[in-house]
Amino acid sequence: MKSYKYILLFLFTAFLTSCENELEIDPQQSQDSDITLSTEGGITNILNGAYALVADADVYGGRMLVSGDLMAQTGVTATTDFRWRGTYGEFRQMYTKTILTDNAFVRQIYKRCYDIINAGNIVIENIDKVKDPDKQARMIAEAKFLKSLAYFDLVRFFAQPYEAGKQNTQLGVIIRPNAIYDYNSDLSKERSTVEEVYALVISGLNDAYDNLPEENSFYPDKYAAKALLARVYLQQQNYEAARDAADEVISDSGRALSNTYAGAFNHDVNQIEDIFAVQITKQTGENEIVVMYASEGNGGRGGDIEIRNTYLDKFTDPNDVRANFNYVNDDNGRLLTSKYTNQFGDVGIIRLAEMYLIRAESNFRLGTAVGDTPLNDINLIRSRANATNFILITLDDILAERELELAMEGFAIHDLKRTKGSIDVNGDGSVLIPYNDNKLVFPIPLREMDTNGKITQNPGYGS
């Protein structure tokens, strides 16, 4: 019963505080687990706790996005876009592709994602305590959205990439279909396949889409579910489904591009371009992506991630505002992005510009023009950035535009894997780290390996 109460208490109180370490709770503050699970207020608070876990610095509060950026860079020579200048050994391992099984950041990404999944399962299994059927349906849908988000990023980081046209029987991650109340029990289980995890994610998001409202404050609405589906389908290279999902969000969600590129970032409340954003406040979380990317004056550590000329050289139009959306840190001379200068600003997870990029790429690959032509979609984004419009467009142009628009937002390693790219270590093609190299996959954390007698470690990390 001790573990049973602990996990419920953790979820119940997580919406009040998001922390780096395990919560230390005074027993007098605890609420009996039976009471928590038997009241509507208790189940609602567990769902609130799931949102607080999402906002945790370890995951969508920023660290997971930073990991996605650093895994696509290399510390050997100045050939990639960004340079790690910080002191965190965990991030340096990602940057140099020397990750250890006891990497604390990898461990916490893994753990927090499963905490989110377990919170969602608890809500779903105890939803009968909520009396209003409409509220029941919405809460289940929100729980499924959060679970799908967590599973999707788990399988992208901890497994070999999904490849279209293959059976994708490579090991993915553990699927936990039921809530865990007692962590003292034997929870040993082997990982499901990548195909099975993707099928679960897609099913969960479709269910969420069917039952979420069209408007849901800053919580996910039905178009957030559809937008995440567009991202999932794109990762699968299912371009028809990705195109149609992105087109629906563009056409029906009521979102629009911010008037300026700067307007898409550094705000405390959702803006018109936001489809889903993690809400950060002084009480509930820390914007960890600001901590890593910003100067001390802007709430960071001085610029742990520095922009290189290799990134700036990708801009061919000197009028493109994105090329100059940066600043020099007076303390150390590092060039830093201006995307992250609000310490308690929201962390954007999905914004509308991504949907235009998905629709453009998918239409181009399919030779279609659903919603609009690829040329018009890309030029809409370029016009917002004051960049010269294209007259003709290629797939390389579209992929380059995605790289310029979404840089430093956590997409880099996932796009590299999807497009079967490589990290050019020396800049001359002599040493390449291909998209399916084992070094680009996180290890199953040592803690999981020590307690799970059935799980298989990823290649390259021992048994």
Concise overview:
The chain is mostly helical and 463 residues long. Helix content is 44%, strand content 6%. The protein has 17 helices and eight strands.
Word description of this protein:
This protein has about 475 residues and is mainly alpha-helical. The protein has a single domain, classed as Serine Threonine Protein Phosphatase 5, Tetratricopeptide repeat. About 45% of the residues lie in helices and about 5% in strands. It is built from 17 helices and eight strands. It has helices at about 1-15, 35-40, 40-55, 65-70, 90-95, 105-125, 135-160, 195-210, 220-235, 240-250, 290-295, 310, 350-365, 375-385, 395-405, 410-420, 445-450, and strands at about 80-85, 275-280, 305, 325-330, 335, 345-350, 420-425, 430-435. The strands form four sheets. The protein has a two-stranded antiparallel sheet. It has a two-stranded antiparallel ribbon with strand order 2-6. It has a two-stranded antiparallel ribbon with strand order 4-5. It is globular. It starts with a helix and ends in a 12-residue tail after the last helix.
